[in-house]
Amino acid sequence: MHTEPTIEIRKLKEINIEGGVVFDGFQGIGLTSTIAIGCFINSLKTELVGILDSPLFPPISVIYNAKPNFPARIYANEEKKLAFFVSEAILESSSYRQIAHTILNWSNYNKCKTVISVAGRKIEKDRTKKERSLYVISNSPIIMKELNEIGILTYKNGTVNGIPGILLNESNWKNIDVVVFVVDVISGGPDFRAAANVAQVVSKIVPEAYCEIKPLIKEAESIENNLKILRSQTSYKFKERMYR
Length: 244
Known about the structure:
A hairpin with a 4-residue loop joins strand 6 and strand 7 (82-87). By secondary structure, the chain is an alpha/beta fold. The longest helix has 29 residues, at 214-242. 36% of the residues lie in helices and 25% in strands. It has one domain (8-214): Rossmann fold. The termini are far apart. The chain has six helices and eleven strands.
């Protein structure tokens, strides 16, 4: 009988984050979740507490500071009761369900109260900072009320795909609060401004989660300027061809 590949968590350290918050940093559109979670990991004092291994993951080693890393890992700040699942790998959609269940089961095992994830909503053209939208959806009416009170709009109609969608669907079954931020992202590359928007909002509802926003904004501005130059050059070349 055919059995599906499983995800193994190799525990590197016992931690106590009871009542804490877990973040899903697996890749999505615009790499928003991965970038935002990376900002938290680098800004806070976190340590590697576990790795995820599975035939579902690509056979790669991620090298940071001359050290090899598994493509999916768990970091934590025990003092602040925060944990971060993160992966830079591009994964097959067939793995999403198992990854979501792994995150929820690990969160329940460690008696955490909330899982936060990010879903990108692709936009084809660049928008100004004011026009870029960020919404929220959660199975918890209390969390929704808190977020609405600080100006975050409810995501009323649409779809949430991938791991964030499965986390939402399974939240009540697993008896855990799940919060998904739905954010506009520019298609075609990493969206640092969207990641900065998410990180800023998360810091408001989870004060322990600190992220140094300035580098993300700087990177966003750099990418946006490069896109403007590319567009103007492309437009100029098109006009040149038109009037020859």
